[in-house]
Amino acid sequence: MYFATSQLPHSPPSPSLEPPLTCAQGHSSTMIIPTDEGGSICLLCLSNLISNPRSPTVHVSYALSQLSIALFQPSFRQTFFTFHSHFLISPLVGVLSSFYDEPIAKQTMDLIMQLCEAPDCDVHAEFVARLADRLSSGSLAWSQRQLHSLHCLGLLLDYQKNHSYCLEETDALIFNLVSGLQLSSEDIQGEILFVLYKLFLLNGSQDGEDPPSLFGHFSKLLDLALAVLMKAQSDDVRLNCIAFLTVMMQRGFFQTTSIIGTRSRSSYDVDHLMETNEQISDGPLAILFAEAVKGPLLSSDNQVQIAALDLLYLYLSGKDVLENEIQVFVEENIADYAFEVLRLSGCKDPTIKSCIQLLDILATAEQAFRQRLAIGFMALIPVLHHVAEIPFHPVQTKTLRLIWNSVENCPGVVSKSQVEEISLSLTGMLKKNLDGEIGMLPETLALVCSIFVALMKCSSTCGISSFSLTIQDASRNCILTSLINYGKYPGQLLNSLYLLKEAYSYSFGMNSSSSMNTDLRRSIIDVCKTHILPWFMKSLHEMEDEDIPAAILENFYSILLQDSETETKIFANVLLTSSWFSFAYGCLGLFPSEKMKRNVYLIFSVMTDIILGVDSARCISDAAPHLPSDPIDLLFLLGHKSSQNVELSSRQLAVLLLLYISSLYDDRIADDKLVLASLEQYILLNSSENMHGASVLGIFMGIFINLYALYRGLAKVSYQIPYSPEAERIVFHLLAEKGWDLLSTRIHVTSLKWLFQQEKICNVLSAQILKFCRCNCSTINQINIHGEANQKIDVYVMTELVALGDNFLGMLMVFLLGEAGEQYSEYDIVSVVNTIKRIIEISPSTSDQFCMHGIATAIKNLYYKFGHSLSPDTFMSISELVSCILQAVHSEFLSDDEPWVAIVVKIIDYLIPSVAADGWTPGTLVSIGSLSMVLHHSVNQVMVEASKTIILSTHLLSLVNTTIANACSKGPSLVEQDEGTRSVEALVFVLSLLFFSLRSAHAILPGIMDFQYLLDPTNIPQPWPYISIQCHDLCKLLHFGSIPIKLLSSQYLLELFSGIEDERSRKSDTLEFRTNYLSSIMAVLEGQLFSSDMSVAMNCSLCLSMLIGWQDVDTEVSAIQRNNWCRFIVEELVISLAAPSLASKSFMIHHKPAILIAVELLRRKKVLQWMTSIFDESCIFAITRNITNSNLSAELVFLLRKLLNYGFLNDEQIAALNQVFQECRKCIYTDKLQNAGAEEKTWNVAAASDYVGKVCQFLISLVTTQPSSGMESSRFQSGKRELLEEIDLFSKCLMRED
Known about the structure:
Elements: E1 32-34, E2 40-42, H1 43-51, H2 57-70, H3 74-83, H4 89-98, H5 102-115, H6 122-136, H7 145-159, H8 170-181, H9 186-202, H10 218-231, H11 235-251, H12 256-262, H13 270-276, H14 282-297, H15 302-316, H16 323-331, H17 334-343, H18 349-362, H19 366-376, H20 380-388, H21 396-409, H22 416-435, H23 442-456, H24 465-484, H25 492-506, H26 515-539, H27 547-560, H28 566-577, H29 580-590, H30 594-612, H31 618-623, H32 631-638, H33 646-664, H34 672-685, H35 687-692, H36 699-718, H37 725-737, E3 747-748, H38 749-755, H39 762-778, E4 785-786, H40 795-804, H41 809-823, H42 826-842, H43 846-852, H44 855-866, H45 872-888, H46 898-918, H47 922-938, H48 944-951, H49 954-969, H50 982-1004, H51 1011-1015, H52 1031-1040, H53 1043-1066, H54 1075-1087, H55 1094-1110, H56 1113-1122, H57 1124-1138, H58 1145-1149, H59 1151-1162, H60 1169-1174, H61 1177-1186, H62 1194-1205, H63 1211-1229, H64 1251-1264, H65 1280-1297
Protein name: Protein PRD1
Region (Disordered): 1-20
């Protein structure tokens, strides 16, 4: 409302001129000041002009403007301020009240402000004093003429804010100003209020106290100011009035009684003040004030609104304001006005700040404010979005407090959309704070946690699918933030833990099984085990009080209490595997309060329930108040006799449970020696109760036995801990007399191992093993064993113990199998058999232990005890066990031949009639497989008699011959049979039997072998009958059979040819070959060189190579010259190596078998002419050029080595090959060349889950991996090792030539 002084431009200074001797009026030259333009100004003339009210306004205005311009000239300015600065003060003050002209008044005020820039500060003070005196005049009549004087005084008071003024007639001035406030002119009221504002602000004494002359007007001024504020329509007047009231409020003048009590002066008559001032009670003043500010709050001027809000805040935040005063303002709807201002603010920061801080104070009147808050809550949501984005916003915390107040006290007003908006804003704040984008005060984090907790209790959250995800993120971010900032703000963690606990409870509310709530629980448990638990264990010793440890324990307890959740059990397992018992007792050592002890033992109790079952740890929770905090003192409780003392007995059981659970997880809460001594003392003192009473029955007996066995096992490992034989005797007696159940409790593997090392309790253990076999067979129960990571294990730990061999478990199982045939039912037999079989399947080495303990004798007894009375299923189970043992056992553990002879006889006796009656069944096929594996082991000179029984069995020979004859008679239709049919399976098993019979007969019955008869039976008398197959039958099966049949047939042929090759090397000219017969065999083999199975192709290639070598040298050349098939193979090989793009796709895959044929042709005494023409220089050059380390194979190097031996390679080609070989070595050694070894194949002979199919796969794999005594090329597997070996042989060959 006040006008700024205009800055006029001025001309550059000209040379100073001498002042004229006199002016036109004859005034002295001392009053005349020259100007830079060459003229001069007579100050006396100027004074006379402006002091005369009758002077023309044009002249006055011109004179004032010329003086204002001259004051910008340095020389004029210096002269004027040096000699005449006070001369024009009185005339200028007179102009303001003499001329009723707005422009002149403005010029005058601008000139006065220019003059106040004088270095002499007294000019400013004198202007103020003269204006004040004029306004203090008793004859002052208020009119518009005084408006300019008031305005100028306000400008002067506002000009220097650091000046204080001691006005002589302050009381008269205030009186006149008070009178002026009662006028109806808002312009005058506004000017008066501004002057009063500046006077109250600036006229304090040096000690900060106010002049006594002001005291008499406070009450009147307050009433008038509030009245003006209430009625004013002008925003300027409102703004000045608010400014004046603000100063009064800052000075503490709002309550007269307070003023009198605190502002008394010795020089001032307080009694007079009491007589002249009205007393305004708190209630009416508050109501008047509330009514007065409503107009400014509705103003369209945002500055007025903010000033009014700040005035209210200043008043209500005073220390002397009572809650009933705040309630008056709320009842007068000030909160509603503030919410409306906030709603229309457009989220402008100053308005938000003023509104929120006022609402925050009004909220202290809780009951009255609650209804207003429910109505204005919607206005807070945009504000929350705004302050959430600004780090450390001044009203961020207050806004959150209002939001929390709304959600907590008015939950019904929060809609679903508002819940989503609030939660998203708060989650964003937490995420940005965690990422370091914004900061957050501890109080802010606490309010965020409280808001989320309040939202979770609102009914509006039901049905919001995303809210659980928001809570999940918020709880995680709060915890992570609190852990990071713990050193700085330790209290934050309590709020975060409170949120985490409530979030977990929320997940069990409505629709607790939903995926969202399930994910929320998983997230909370993950936060606990991944972040809180490691931090807690690391930072425990840095904590100063128990609040945080207690809060963490309460969170863990609330999670563990929900023992139906899988995640809860996992969390309990994480705690236990983290040495939780030792850590918890460490907490009690640092914070030995009853609260901490209660929390610790409650967690122990619920963890025990999770491990052992519900209500199994009730004795721990019941005895918790009486249990000591030191684990050593726990052991002390075991050293007392508990007869006739139920409470002591209950506490002792609690101690045993604590020791048992902690020991399961290798968490030692006391020294092993001390624990064992305490357990033995407990046994000795309470032996009578243990023998005859019920103190350790049921599950507690199992716990006690397992605990004792564990510490005895640990004592045995350390070799230093003594034990009591008497206590051991009592324990063994308990095992024998009481109903101990190994399956009822979890047991440490050390306990189990020690128990199975005790020969004195073998009878008890046998019964437990049988019970275990029954349960394992029915898959109803399992033994829970503590192993690594505390997994629940059943038969696996039994397998581990049997494999160790340092206990009686293997022997007891074999004994039990033998006893089963004498005492137990067929179901028990199957249970024991299946358990042993499963153990062998898990660890094949256990079969060695079972064989050492005489399992063959036990199986023989089963066969001969029951004979044909066994059901098919039982016989099948026993047959599978025999097969399983023979697959896994090492031959050196099969020294006892007699029971195996009996087993073989029984198998054959079962096999022959079963096949005749029912055909090939799974039982008969498994039996054939078992016989094959017996023959396989006989190669190592074990089970010799049993193998002879098989080989020489005429009934078995007849069965084999019949099966082979039936298969061969089918001819081409044989290949059309599905590989998974029973007939194909039977043929596979029979061929496996024939293969191992051939190898076994060669090893144990060498004299019975007649290779001439097997190869070509024409004109040869039949030798002693034994299980065998003739060559022409093999060729039929090889030609017409499916892939498994081809594979086994070719493998048998390779084994047969290898035997013939070996015999020819030892006895030359002992075998006769018919050329036509060999040619027919060669035709079959040549046809299989392109078989889709590489193993079949390689076997046939090796056989064909040996056949070529057997032909007579004279007939060989002509025969091979006529053999266009061999030439075609070699030519295709050369094309595939020299020009891969021209070769057929199938031959690119089968060049390895072709290499063997080519090498064999090169090895002839006389190399064929067409071989020389094929392997000419250009061809070999092309081959060597195409060879790289990526396509190099052992077979190819083998071919190159033979070409080198026979002089086909020149020096240039050898050098190129050496370079490739060097690169290949480098790649292999740096592991850059992928292993091109033979891939593992499976054959579709039966379903994968079928045991018969598994045996079939095993037999095929066993057949194909048997070493052959044939030519050197039969060793190739195309792996890295074989490739390096061939490269080394090539280098050695080269060195020999050099």
